[in-house]
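Run log // design_07
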């Protein structure tokens, strides 16, 4: 009788182990397929951009594209210098990071080092609500509220300008920079803080001399992520910055970014397959290269600080 029970128990255990292994294989396969979807999608996007851009660069010189200062692809005498779009993109990005960078870092320091747990539980979710506001709302806010307000103090400010778009974009990016930086600061071991305070440092000195350097990899990553998001932002600049590809570094003038140009062309009546149509893929490929470079720089900085801590 005991032998029969043992046999039954062994059989049940084998079936359980087989079922567990089967479930693990199914889960592993599903996870692999999910990861594969992202990889295949990325390669498909790159392939489409590259193949369509080849047709563009067969008719337009790469040197002219990268160094020209006049961008009029839809004119009777077209010019294909992309620098006006690039400068417009980085101008609004610089303004946005000038707002979101310092404010986001200081907000993160307050939430991590000075705010009470109760205040932190209230302020952080409230701050992250800004990330849920549609970007088209930000765009019309910049156009209908911020620009008229700034024109009272800056009469030379045009109706469409890079300044308003950049400032509102900085408000939009603020939750990203603040949240990621706060997470990085909060993850710093308390032993570092206690050691600094035990040596006689003030709380302010501990924050800026110990905690912030220790969390610099996460802070740098948050800044680069904010830059990447600003470079790829579309609706705010399309609505508030204008659609004039002007080669200028003056934030008071109307400009056009790479993303705004893509939106404008795709909504127009440009015939499919023409060189004017292929400009959106060439600009998109350049935008992809820029964001890829930013992501690689973020990873390099993270690895550098990680190696320095080790």
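design_07 sequence
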């Amino acid at each position: 009788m005991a032998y029969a029970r043992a046999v039954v128990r062994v059989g049940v255990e084998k079936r359980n182990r087989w079922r567990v292994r089967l479930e693990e294989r199914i889960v592993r396969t599903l996870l692999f397929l999910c990861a594969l979807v992202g990889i295949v999608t990325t390669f498909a996007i790159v392939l489409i951009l590259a193949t369509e851009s080849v047709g563009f660069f067969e008719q337009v010189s790469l040197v002219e594209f990268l160094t020209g200062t006049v961008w009029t692809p839809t004119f009777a005498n077209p010019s294909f210098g992309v620098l006006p779009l690039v400068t417009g993109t980085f101008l609004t990005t610089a303004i946005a990071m000038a707002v979101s960078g310092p404010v986001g870092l200081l907000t993160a320091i307050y939430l991590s080092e000075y705010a009470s747990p109760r205040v932190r539980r209230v302020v952080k979710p409230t701050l992250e609500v800004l990330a849920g506001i549609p970007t088209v709302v930000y765009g019309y806010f910049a156009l209908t509220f911020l620009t008229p307000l700034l024109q009272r103090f800056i009469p030379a400010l045009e109706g469409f300008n890079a300044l308003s778009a950049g400032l509102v974009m900085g408000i939009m990016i603020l939750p990203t920079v603040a949240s990621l930086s706060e997470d990085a600061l909060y993850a710093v071991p308390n032993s570092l803080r206690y050691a600094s305070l035990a040596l006689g440092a003030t709380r302010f000195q501990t924050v800026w001399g110990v905690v912030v350097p220790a969390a610099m990899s996460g802070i740098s990553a948050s800044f680069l992520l904010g830059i990447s998001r600003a470079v790829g932002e579309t609706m705010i600049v399309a609505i508030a910055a204008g659609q004039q590809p002007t080669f200028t570094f003056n934030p008071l003038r109307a400009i056009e970014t790479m993303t705004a140009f893509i939106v404008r062309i795709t909504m127009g009546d440009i015939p499919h397959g023409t060189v004017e149509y292929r400009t959106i893929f060439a600009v998109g490929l350049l935008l992809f290269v820029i964001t890829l470079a930013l992501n690689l720089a973020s990873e390099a900085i993270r690895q550098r600080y990680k190696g320095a801590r080790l």
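The chain has two domains: 2-58, 71-309.
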